[in-house]
Amino acid sequence: MSADATKLVYMANQIGKFFHHRPEAQAVADTADHLKKYWDPRMRRKIIAHLKSGGAGLDPNVRKAVEWIARDAKDHHVYPAAVEGEE
User: Comparing C-alpha atoms, which of 87, 50, 45 is closest to residue 69?
Assistant: First the structure.
């Protein structure tokens, strides 16, 4: 895992831990919402690419949140290289 990916995984997991006390569906939705609202598009592209390459280190709810934003990005034709695995 690259140093960038390690940092992003750590940050995403910290966000997931903040919402962990909520019911799973809400925690996943809130984590995804946070990533969409507050992460720079380049960071989102990199975490999606990391997920596509196996997603090592992502906590289960965070993995689901990243899958959610990857689907959303694909549906809206955002970040096509990361979503389609061309990066």
Answer: 45
Q: What is the mean pLDDT of residues 37-55?
A: 96
**Token pair 């940050």: residue:** 11
pLDDT at residue 84 tops 50: no
Q: Where are the domains of the chain?
A: 3-84
Q: For the residues of the chain, what is the DSSP string, one character each?
A: --HHHHHHHHHHHHHHHHHTTS-HHHHHHHHHHHHHHHS-HHHHHHHHHHHHTT-TT--HHHHHHHHHHHHHHHHTT-SHHHHHT--
* Whether pLDDT at 75 is above 80: no
State residue 22 phi and psi, 5-degree precision: -85, 160
Give me the half-sphere count of Cα atoms (radius 13 Å) on the Cβ side of residue 79.
22
The pLDDT-based confidence of 73 (bands split at 50, 70, 90) is: confident
